[in-house]
Specification:
It is built from 20 helices and no strands. The chain is mainly α. It folds into two domains: 8-338, Amino acid/polyamine transporter I; 353-450, no CATH class. The termini are far apart. It is a multi-pass membrane protein.
Length: 450
């Protein structure tokens, strides 16, 4: 049994499980809002969004698979152990109890439940809903060995059926033609770049390496122990999950663009979804959307809490997995009450910092497989990319902070970097660091051979 291959049926469920963990709150509201804003430029925006929203998560899963890493820490320690510890802890706390996980309950409430609650009771009901939501997440997360059953075989298939009903109805009975809708804001001049950066909001490139530990453990629990076969199954599950995501992202963006034929531009994607659900299904649409949103967020919450608990327990084994998931589910029940706009605003600086580092780590892991030595390549690529990533973080701060003396000076320096204003100021420095590190490794390898 130790050398068995994963059965096709089980591989499909693992892929669906991984999709279910990926596809949560932001995966619904961001692409449909992007589509409404992009209008007749929706296809370039979709391509940009898919590069970060699908391409990077797939590369993240591939990096975990081909390096045979057990998780983020194993992958990041190729830079060095101090960086691996800091990066792993920061990543899991950002996409876990501090920012991403609280957003799940907030989106479920704002999009699915809010319209049923009298205006004077919103604060109280949100607090009660947050507690009940994360209590449910905690109950599902108590046994990580059952996550494929909960997420892959029950929650995700139910979610896909209900979302499919809404999406297919909107696609076959469009409110307008996407090509006839004018684009708004930066989508007028830079639709691909804007879509690329918008894909950051899904947090899936970060989640791809964060969820690696859950996928690897699930595959091993199914009887596959050989590292090569675990790696192969991990990559194939990643392909299944990201293909599903890509199809749904494109569909959501298109119906978002088409919605302009019946509705004015909305403030966020949640409003667009609510308008479409009510238009096509009347009063029943509100309940349909509430169920879709809650299921989407619930299954992702289970994945995030489980991944957080397993990773933190492995890093700090004196604290049990059960205690870590209490933290991972308890804190978001409090932070969810900040509200969706507040959480998104706080998230942007952290995403602007972590995303470049995650991309550097993922791409370096994949490319270095063809290099004879890797010791310095990881380190130099990350060293050269770290400062620009920090400067990129500052661009996510509120405008009032950006104009403060010292921060304004740092941003002025950042603007000297090529592509900085487009959010890619870290690319060329990281590439230079990679080349320097690869050259050092090459010379060291040649000296060893001689």
């Amino acid at each position: 049994m130790n050398n068995s291959r994963l059965r096709s049926k089980d591989l499909t469920f693992v892929g669906i499980m991984l999709f279910g963990m990926f596809f949560g709150a932001g995966n619904l509201i961001f692409p449909i809002f992007m589509g409404q804003q992009a209008g007749n430029h929706v296809w370039p925006a979709i391509i940009g969004f898919l590069l970060t929203g699908v391409g990077l998560p797939l590369l993240g899963v591939v990096a975990i698979g081909i390096t045979r890493a057990a998780g983020v820490f194993d992958l990041a320690k190729n830079v060095n152990r101090p960086f691996a510890l800091i990066f792993t802890v920061l990543l899991y706390w950002v996409i876990g109890p501090l920012l991403s996980t609280p957003r799940l309950a907030t989106v479920s409430y704002e999009v699915g439940i809010r319209r049923f609650v009298p205006s004077g009771q919103q604060t109280l009901v949100l607090a009660i809903f947050s507690i009940l939501f994360f209590l449910t997440v905690w109950l599902f997360s108590r046994k990580p060995s059952r996550i494929m059953e909960y997420v892959g075989k029950f929650l995700t298939p139910t979610f896909l059926v209900l979302l499919g009903v809404l999406m297919l109805t909107a696609l076959f009975l469009p409110l307008g033609h996407a090509g006839a809708m004018s684009s708004l804001h930066t989508y007028q001049s830079h639709p691909l770049n804007t879509g690329f950066v918008e894909g950051y909001n899904t947090m899936d490139a970060l989640a791809s390496i964060a969820f690696g530990i859950v996928v690897v453990d699930t595959i091993r629990d199914l009887g596959v122990k050989d590292p090569k076969k675990v790696a192969s199954a991990t990559i194939r599950a990643g392909v299944i999950s990201t293909v599903l995501m890509g199809v749904i992202y494109a569909g959501l963006a298109i119906i978002g663009a088409q919605s302009r034929g019946g509705f004015s531009p909305a403030a966020n994607g949640g409003i667009v979804l609510a308008q479409l659900a009510e238009h096509y299904f009347g009063g029943l649409g509100s309940w349909l959307l509430a169920i879709i949103i809650t299921l989407a967020c619930l299954k992702t919450g289970v994945g995030l809490v489980t991944a957080f608990g397993e990773s933190m327990h492995k890093l700090f084994p004196r604290i049990s997995y059960q205690l870590w998931i209490i933290v991972a589910a308890g804190l978001p029940a409090i932070f969810a009450n900040v509200g969706l706009d507040g959480i998104i605003a706080v998230s942007m600086p952290f995403l602007n910092f972590l995303y470049p580092l995650a991309i550097i780590l993922i791409l370096t892991a994949i490319i270095t497989l063809v290099l004879p030595q890797q010791r310095w390549t990881y380190l130099w690529a990350m060293m050269f990319g770290l400062v620009p990533a920090f400067l990129n973080m500052l661009t996510g701060l509120p405008a009032a902070f950006q104009h403060q003396g010292f921060l304004a000076m740092l941003l002025k320096w950042g603007n000297l970097l090529p592509l900085f204003q487009a959010g890619f100021g870290w690319v060329l420095p990281a590439l230079l660091g990679f080349l320097v590190g690869a050259l050092v490794d090459h010379r060291h390898h040649r000296n060893v051979l001689n």
